[in-house]
Specification:
Mean pLDDT: 85
Distance between the termini: 58 Å
Largest sheet: none
Shape: elongated
Structural class: mainly alpha
Strand content: under 5%
Number of strands: 0
Low-confidence stretches: 94-110
Length: 417
Amino acid sequence: MRDERADGVAFVEAVFREEHGRLLAALVRRFGDLDLAEEVASEAIEAALARWPVDGVPPKPGAWLMTTARRRAVDRLRRDQAFAARLAVLRVEAERAEPAPAPDADGGLPDERLQLFFTCAHPALAAEDRGALMLRCLAGLSTPEVARAFLVPAETMAKRITRAKKKIRAARIPFRVPGADELPGRLPGVLQVVYSIFTEGYVASSGPRLQRLDLAEEAVRFGRILRRLLPAEREVAGLLGLMLLVHARRDARSGPDGEVVLLEEQDRARWDRGMIAEGRDLVAVALTGGPPGPYGVEAAIAALHDESVSLDTTDWPQIVALYDVLLALVPSPIVALNRAVAVAMRDGPEAGLALLDELAGEPRLRGYHPYPAARADLLSRVGRFSEAAAAYRQALELAGTEPERAHLRRRLDAIED
């Protein structure tokens, strides 16, 4: 027999997950305090968990949550006059900066999540705090959940989030979308935070698993929100397209026991074709209407990989050409490393090795295990096995996850037998 109350609780949690960012953003905009907004939002969901499974879900659950949270906030402010006075000043400042929002078309919450994105990703915050705050505020994860996402103790994460909130208050970081003149300078920071969350999900920096699908899926969800809120921004389309095209391979990237499955060995029938089609459409948007941005170019590279039926039939000349464009836009050693691997596929391992050797002194690659791993692979392909073994050992020392280390050990064993 189905547990109807459990089903009701699960539905409430799903609604809250969808509404959390909108609810929190609207509360911050109204009351000017992130801590207060989080507290009353939590109280509203607790009330919903108690009432909805019994009374049924209201027709406009977001509006119900907002009304409940707003009442809790007003009650709290009435009990704390000093707190109320401080928040009144903040609200006056916010109202001077921009007009109060109107309800959306169906009478629910106005969608102010874009303002919250820019607040969480403000350049005044420490880089390590931005992604944590975004997961806490926009994804609605608890502090222990965010701590697990970044593989740090909950106490450490609590301090980070508290530090970020204090910085927002002390620096009077405005809760607003930057103006048209500011947006080009601020949007890349927001996109970088989202992409950093996705990257940690795509290949975890440490731990027992290769992938953190929960993080990757949250980043994709953030990308979809940004795409809805900023439909004219081509780099937003590029980032979402890139994440979809890469995430489409998620089921084929690990074996039954969690082991690494390289691109050339993956069962491409397991790739998500619907996600690939959506990603390709976004690439077209990202590359149309002006010079391409970095995310649009990266998405185009990912699309070429996803369109090929095998590694051998991949359009490596076009991929190298796109890496040339990307390297001009983002002169990064990691981009140069990826380009060298593509050149090796196009022109042979010796050509790729020559390019990797040029990067040998790059300090930003010293702790980056894909660099010695790529050298090891190309060295083994040209029969320089002792050098390849040394490179594999170096990569083993640097690799963060156990599946990556196990993969490198197998490669090392294969050339030492």
